[in-house]
Amino acid sequence: MVKSFLKAIVIVLMLTSLAYASNEAAEKVDLNTATVKDLAKLPGIGPKTAVKIVVYRKDNGGFKSIEELMKVKGVGVKTYNKIEGLITISEYTDDNATADSEVVADAENAGNEES
Question: Do residues 71 and 56 lie in contact, with contact meaning Cβ atoms separated by under 8 Å?
């Protein structure tokens, strides 16, 4: 009876870890659609770098690969290696470009207010 109970616990733990792993994969941050807030949650990416990511994506028509993230000032190899498994990309659309234009304009306005 104890063996059956232990087997049941092991099975439950295995299923729980599989469910957690699938949730983790589903929660990747999409470099072409993420908000500044979402990007800033990534390890090593703060709010200023998150804005730079959005500006880069707007200026370049989105990211074509996750490795392209290292072209953004403030994102080096070490930071990239920390977040590589946490990011993904999808197609960059006109809707993304419109939203990015608004974010960039807001960031520029905030910068002008600080001056």
Answer: yes
